[in-house]
Amino acid sequence: MVFLAYAPADREWARDLTSNLARQGVEVWDAYSEVSPGENWHLLLGEALEKALAMVVLVSPAAAESESVRHEIEYALSSERFRNRLIPVIVKPTRKLPWILKHLSPEKGTASEISERIAERLKTGEACQSRLSASTLLRMLRESGLIGMWKDRADIQDSLEFARQLRREAEKRGRSS
Predict the structure, then answer these.
(1) Which residues, in sequence order, are CB contacts of 23 under 8 Å at separation 6+?
(2) What Rg do the C-alpha atoms of the chain give, in angstroms?
(3) Number of domains comprising the chain
(4) Helix (H, G, I), strand (E, B) or coil at 83
(5) Which of 113, 116, 27, 122 is nearest to 84 (CA)?
């Protein structure tokens, strides 16, 4: 299953890509379609991220401004399971494209063209080979400010640990309801 991250403004594009990926035999989890009002959004999102084999991020000016999209990208970058499995898709060009996504072979084109390439990348295991060495990419990531983006919050010491804590709390709420 592929986790689809995008801003609400790109919902129509997301629907088109999802239906094209389904025709390619790729199951997609889309929070805006899968989570109903009143459900535990964070718990279901965490469960989907745990089950996903890859993440597709729709990149646009709206996505660049979306806090939830940034958090989902940070989660994927910090998770070993998503290593080489984070696929950026350029929906609308933006100067605010997170720099790291530029190095992950972003896809461009129509939803139909992109879905074929994504399906192939997933089958071959080459979802997003970076053009940079691992050490260079790690150095750039550390210098980017993306890791530790919550550093100005006094209540958060470690963003990865904070994400884990949020997940544990969501799981507790899910079990108690």
Answers:
(1) 115
(2) 16
(3) 1
(4) coil
(5) 122
We report the CATH number of the domain holding residue 22 as 3.40.50.10140
Task: Indicate the residue type of 57.
Answer: V
Angle among Cα 11, 16, 21 to the nearest 5 degrees reads: 120
What distances in angstroms separate CA 115 from CA 2, 23, 119, 120, 149, one per listed residue? 12, 9, 6, 9, 31
**Domain coverage including residue 70:** 2-176
Q: What is the DSSP string of 32-62?
A: HHH--TTS-HHHHHHHHHHH-SEEEEEESHH
- Using one digit for the tens of pLDDT, what is the confidence trace for 58-112? 999 999 999 889 889 888 888 888 878 899 999 998 888 777 787 788 999 999 9
What is the C-alpha to C-alpha distance for residues 35 and 27, in angstroms, rounded to an integer?
A: 16
